[in-house]
């Protein structure tokens, strides 16, 4: 897939995700910085102390995020306020999302159909 980074803007990403830890949470909020798209990506290992240290995060392009988590590009256009917990099966494969705003599980297919 060819990605034009200019179409997406920057993602705020935990360094743990870059180091290969599975994604646990993603949320999108309106950014006050025009170059950012509002998406923040946390790993399964990010606790409050980790998250509260801005040195533990970097800004990545869409192309870089696609290499780590192609699913982010599929859900990119989700509305501001989207807050998702990523769920995995016993083998560590992505299973579905838990929509924290709706307080229920939702498959990728249903998420895309409903919100995108």
UniProtKB/TrEMBL annotation:
Domain of life of the organism encoding this protein: Bacteria
Domain Immunity protein Imm33: 12-96
InterPro entries noted in UniProt: Imm33_dom
Protein name: DUF2185 domain-containing protein
Organism annotation: Amedibacillus hominis
């Amino acid at each position: 897939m060819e990605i034009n980074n200019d179409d997406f803007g920057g993602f705020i990403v935990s360094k743990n995700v870059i180091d290969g830890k599975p994604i646990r949470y993603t949320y999108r909020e309106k950014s006050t910085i025009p170059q950012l798209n509002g998406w923040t990506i946390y790993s399964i290992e990010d606790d409050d102390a980790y998250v509260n240290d801005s040195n533990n995060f970097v800004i990545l392009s869409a192309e870089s995020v696609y290499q780590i988590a192609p699913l982010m590009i599929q859900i990119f256009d989700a509305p501001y306020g989207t807050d998702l917990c990523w769920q995995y099966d016993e083998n560590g494969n992505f299973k579905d999302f838990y929509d924290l705003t709706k307080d229920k599980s939702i498959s990728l297919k249903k998420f895309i159909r409903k919100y995108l």
